[in-house]
Amino acid sequence: MSCRNLLVILPFLLLVSCEKKSDPITVDVVAVVNGTPITKREMVRRIELTAVPGIHKHKGRNKRALDMLINELTLSQLAKEHGLEDSPDYKKSIKFIEQQSMIRELFFEKIRANAAPDSQIIDLTLRKSLIRMTVKTLVTEEKSIADKWIKFVKSGGMFDDLIKESESDSRISIGGSSFHWGDGTVPFQVEDGAYQTAAGEMSDILNLPNGFAILYVENAAQDIILTPYALSIKQSQIKEVLQARRESVLADEYVAKLMKSITVKQKGDGLEAVIKFIQKRLELTKDDESPLSNIMNQELTLSDDADLSLPVIKTPDFVWNGHDVTVLLRNYNYPIDKSSRGSLRKTMTEFLKSAVTDHYLALRAENIGLQSAERVKDDVKTWGTYFLSLKGLSTFAREDSTLDKEGVKSRVKALRETAQIEIKHNILEGIELTGIPMIVVWNNRFNQHLATPPLMKY
């Protein structure tokens, strides 16, 4: 069995399992593994940053989380025994962790601190959220069609006539929705457009992430009545949604301003060489959903005939060749669309744009000294243990190439059985993990799939 089949990275879904605020994190030791302590603080931080399988199930949640950490620690100790802490691949992983940690700290410093909504906006939005909107919609990706809609609206045309004209046009989607503010049923652009439009009227043209829309409000009626207790909960939920949306806007503006003066060139020959390399790697796996990080390994890189020395990305400050891009693909646990050469080229271009942006965000963070922030140091320590545990797993493949997944589990179990482990059950049982998912990103869908570490509020 090859290394790529052993190093199965946990599905990083940007899940945060926060401890209740009433129970502050302390330095209490939860367990000791071969003389190395796992503190309550370390456990909570680790679970905040990663999804634990079945974390939404309350029964046995703490034990499952601690078992994962103990396995990682014993594997990382095995890796240290083999000297893998000094391997170039591990050091590159640590460097990537530092980059992503600084980006997250930059988010806290420059975005979150300025995104809190005021009480007046919360109150106005609360009133809107009690009203159910029922709308008809027309959606297209074609700007030329959207331009025709603009002329139609200005001419005073009726929405039903516009629907009749659109029925035979395959470029236009006709639909309808019924929703409340903030329930996630429709894109927030459609939501905002609906609440700005009176019943019986058409909206202006709405700009969507991948196209344009126009809507007609069929009905707007309050259908929610809140008790005082439910009102308090609703206000809290609205505040969170408003802040998240404001963070997305501010982050997008921050990135646009940062990248405005930077010229980034993508080289066609270099990109084609990487695409050729990826397609050859795909021949080695039948799993179409497998992330590229699971198939982009060093051993295969050395045996491939694609010229990965060609430049792929050129900026005023650095050049990435094909080898550099394969390293990025291993670091970012992103499942790129591999269904065809065209879709692969398109998503690779988007991915590289995101990676270049990350590079400059991290550079900005470093320039203002965020590498010394406590959160950054803690993240590097947390993820350093995790990635070192993956190096520990790789030793099994080198020792026995015939191991399957069950064989790997048996080896991990045997390693754990030989370890000296002491668990403080009273402290473990007192940790309350909620398992609540909270996603915060730089308004970029690629960053939702980062392997390390997500942009996440603690």
Can you give a write-up of this model?
By secondary structure, the protein is α+β, with helices and mostly antiparallel strands. The protein has 3 domains: 3-112 and 380-449, Triger factor/SurA peptide-binding fold (Orthogonal Bundle), CATH 1.10.4030; 131-223, Chitinase A, domain 3; 265-367, no CATH class. The chain has 16 helices and 10 strands. It has helices spanning 3-6, 40-49, 61-81, 88-110, 119-129, 143-154, 159-166, 188-195, 228-259, 268-282, 298-303, 322-331, 341-367, 374-399, 405-417, 425-429; strands spanning 29-33, 36-39, 131-140, 172-179, 206-208, 211-222, 265-266, 311-314, 319-321, 421-423. The strands form 3 sheets. A 4-stranded antiparallel sheet has the order 4-3-6-5. The chain has a 3-stranded antiparallel sheet with strand order 2-1-10. α4 (88-110) packs antiparallel against α14 (374-399). It is globular, with a radius of gyration of 25 Å. Mean pLDDT is 80; it is low at 1-26, 287-303 and 434-458.
Low-confidence stretches: 1-26, 287-303, 434-458
For the largest beta-sheet, the strand count, sense and barrel status come to:
4 strands, antiparallel
Can you give the helix content as a percent range?
Answer: 40-55%
Shape: globular
Query: What number of structural domains do the residues give?
Result: 3
Q: Identify the quaternary structure here.
A: single chain
Quick one: CATH class of the largest domain? Mainly Alpha
Which structural class best describes the helix and strand composition? alpha+beta
Q: What does the average pLDDT come to? A: 80
Strand order of the largest sheet: 4-3-6-5
- Write down the CATH topology of the largest domain: Triger factor/SurA peptide-binding fold
Count of alpha/pi helices: 16
SS strand fraction:
5-15%
- Radius of gyration, in Å, reads 25 Å
Order of helices and strands: HEEHHHHEHHEHEEHEHHEEHHHHEH
Q: Distance N terminus to C terminus?
A: 38 Å
- Second CATH tier, the architecture of the largest domain: Orthogonal Bundle
DSSP summary, beta strand count = 10
